[in-house]
């Protein structure tokens, strides 16, 4: 009887996992249409929308998982979730989007956004690895950095010409109530679907005796990054390359500056279980993206394949080691 119950619970976890994935994919499509409509109606660059509105909406699962992990005293799982999510964003999301379509890289992304993502990763590394603690004052510093990033991103949107995808004209004249509905429904499905997926995937992993660090770096990271992946891939399919790339890079900054900033202000975080290999991969993934993006100022399918294969190599390393 007990064996039957265990099998039933495992099948239920698998079913809910699939439901979560379906919700995330459907929600990403709705959210992308709403975000593109915002870009067209208010004459704002899709890159800016991706770096701000979409990045914030798709980073909410990371915030929820990290916030509750900190409250429950699992700081390593919380930081592991953010480190793993940013690695996933940079290597898998950007890589998969580039494999879908060639993505031109804007000048400001090369000289501002990708370096800022690297700077945020370096800041988290020095605070968490060398000190072993993320204090409230350090969390406040991250939050102020996040506010400065938002301010400059919106300021520069008025100084550049908007660039929106040519394949989303069907949402150009969408009324405001419909835009808000798409954003709210899409974001709600992303959050609930991502949380549903993470909860059930983590439960399945614990049955196999996987550590908090591995859960945070792999299942939680991939699970909470699924909204970014779905949104960026959907945006790439619709020809919105600025939205796809901006979403991934913006989410990296949001995850560290906003999520870790808020969590450490609420409760200081003691970090001890994140290895040097994890920190190295976090920093190296940003450098690799930067180098590939500088080459001819575009990301092509072969460059995307390099990014994705780099993540596969990292995943195999942490699972084997």
Helix/strand layout:
Layout: H1 2-41, H2 46-71, H3 75-100, E1 103-104, H4 107-131, E2 133-134, H5 136-157, H6 176-206, H7 212-237, H8 241-266, E3 269-270, H9 276-294, E4 298-299, H10 301-320
Could you describe the 3D structure shown?
- There is one protein chain.
- The protein is an all-alpha fold and 321 residues long.
- It has one domain: Up-down Bundle (A middle domain of Talin 1), CATH 1.20.1420.30.
- The protein has helices spanning 2-41, 46-71, 75-100, 107-131, 136-157, 176-206, 212-237, 241-266, 276-294, 301-320; strands spanning 103-104, 133-134, 269-270, 298-299.
- Helix 1 (2-41) runs antiparallel to helix 2, helix 2 runs antiparallel to helix 7 (212-237) and helix 2 (46-71) runs parallel beside helix 8.
- It starts with a helix and ends with a helix.
- Mean pLDDT is 83; it is low at 162-172.
E-strand count: 4
Helices and strands, in order, run as HHHEHEHHHHEHEH
Tell me what the CATH architecture is: Up-down Bundle
Q: Averaging pLDDT over every residue, what do you get? A: 83
- In terms of DSSP E residues, the strand content is under 5%
- CATH class assignment: Mainly Alpha
Number of separate helices? 10
Q: What is the domain total for the residues?
A: 1
Helix percentage: over 70%
Provide key terms for this protein.
mainly alpha; A middle domain of Talin 1; two-stranded antiparallel ribbon; 10 helices; 81% helix; globular
What's a quick, concise take on this entry?
The protein is mainly α and 321 residues long.
